[in-house]
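Translate sequence into structure tokens.
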Amino acid sequence: MSDGNKKSKISSSRRLGLKIRLLAVATQMLQEEKEQKAREREAVLAERLPPLNLSGLSLQELQDLCKELHHKIDVVDEERYDVGLKVSKNDTEIENMKIKITEIQSKFKKPHLKRVKISAEAMLSVLLGSKHKESFDFKANLKTVKKEEEKKEEVTDWRKNVEAMSGMEGRKKLFDASGN
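Result follows.
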């Protein structure tokens, strides 16, 4: 219905009567569901726990019955503890997944920003506002790096070098040179 001026075909008194009937039916269904669950619970308890017949039992039989009941209670407590751990683990997983879902849903595409060319002076005036009174020369504050000239090895006659290194004297010079 795109028109806001259109009235519904059902009168308000009829709509109210339908709501009351729906609520009455819903409460009746809830009551029936509760009764059904109570009957199922009673049936399960009657199946799992037969009625106790304590009359005519001797002291030893009563003690054995108590031990058996304590053992059953321990088994049920262990199962309850295990189920409780599983439930708490599942609850934490559900919470983590809810957090992930909200993170995924909250992400949005970043808008494409236009590149603005602005000088350092204008940027400082925008950032500092009225505090910016003096101008800075940023290039003057930069360190200057001197390039080291590569040392060129002197080109000498290789024959003189071979003659100097020959013999024990040459080996001694090589040993001394490698040690330094």
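Note: Residues 59-106 form the longest helix (48 residues).
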